[in-house]
Amino acid sequence: MIALLLYEPVLVSFTGGTLGHTWTNLRVVDDRHGGNVSFAKACLRIVIKSVLGWYSFIVLAATRRNQAIHDLLTRSTVQIRDPTKASPGQYITERSVPAATHLPSRWRRVAVICGCLLVMIIIVASVAVGLLSPRCLDNDYCSAGERLISLGAALALLALAALIIAQGWRGRLFGARGS
C-alpha cells in the first residue's frame, strides 16, 4: 500500500515523471528552477490531484500554459522530455496573450469565480429543490423522475462550474474582465 501511495511522488521527484510520463515523452518540471520538483512538492501535487480528481484537469483550457490546478498550485509544469522525439500532434503550445489585454489580479479573478460559483449553486439548488417532493428531500425516497432531476442538476452544476472557472480565469466574467 505504501508503494502505491509513494509511486508518483518518488518517481516525479527523482526522475521527473512516472512511467506513463516517460513513455509519452513528458516530464514534470519545477517552474522556479526548471529541474525536477521536490519530494514534498510532488506529494502535495498528488494530494491535490487526488482530492480534485478529473476536475483538476478542466482548468487546462483556461490557462495560458495549459496547466491543471495541481500544477498551478505547486508551480510546476508538464513539459516535453525530449523535443527531438516529439511530433507536433503530441503537444499543445503555450497560448499567447494579446498585449492589450490586462487581466485583473489572480486573487480578484478567484474571488469573482467563487462568487459566481456560489450564486450558481444557490440558483441550481433552489430550482432542483422546487422540483423535488418533500418525501424525496427528507426521506431520500425518490421516484425515477426525481432521480433524473437530481442527476440533471448535478451534471448541470459540474458543467456550469467548469464554464465559470474557465471564463473567469480568462477574464470574461463580470467583475473579472480584462481592460
Q: How would you explain this protein's 3D organization?
A:
The protein is mainly alpha-helical. It has two domains: about 1-90, no CATH class; about 105-170. About 55% of the residues lie in helices and about 5% in strands. The protein contains seven helices and two strands; from the N terminus they run ααβααβααα. Strands 1-2 form a two-stranded antiparallel sheet. α1 (about 1-15) crosses α3 and α5 (about 105-130) packs antiparallel against α7 (about 145-170). The radius of gyration is 20 Å and the shape is globular. The mean pLDDT is about 85.
Order of helices and strands: HHEHHEHHH
Class from secondary-structure proportions:
mainly alpha
Radius of gyration: 20 Å
* Order of strands in the sheet with most strands: 1-2
Give the N-terminus to C-terminus distance in angstroms.
Answer: 51 Å
Strand content bin: 5-15%
Instruction: Provide the low-confidence segments as ranges.
Output: none
Number of DSSP helices? 7
- Give me the count of strands: 2
Helical percentage: 40-55%
- Average pLDDT, rounded to a whole number, is 84
Shape: globular
The total tally of domains equals: 2
**Largest β sheet strand count, sense and barrel closure:** 2 strands, antiparallel
- The quaternary structure here is single chain
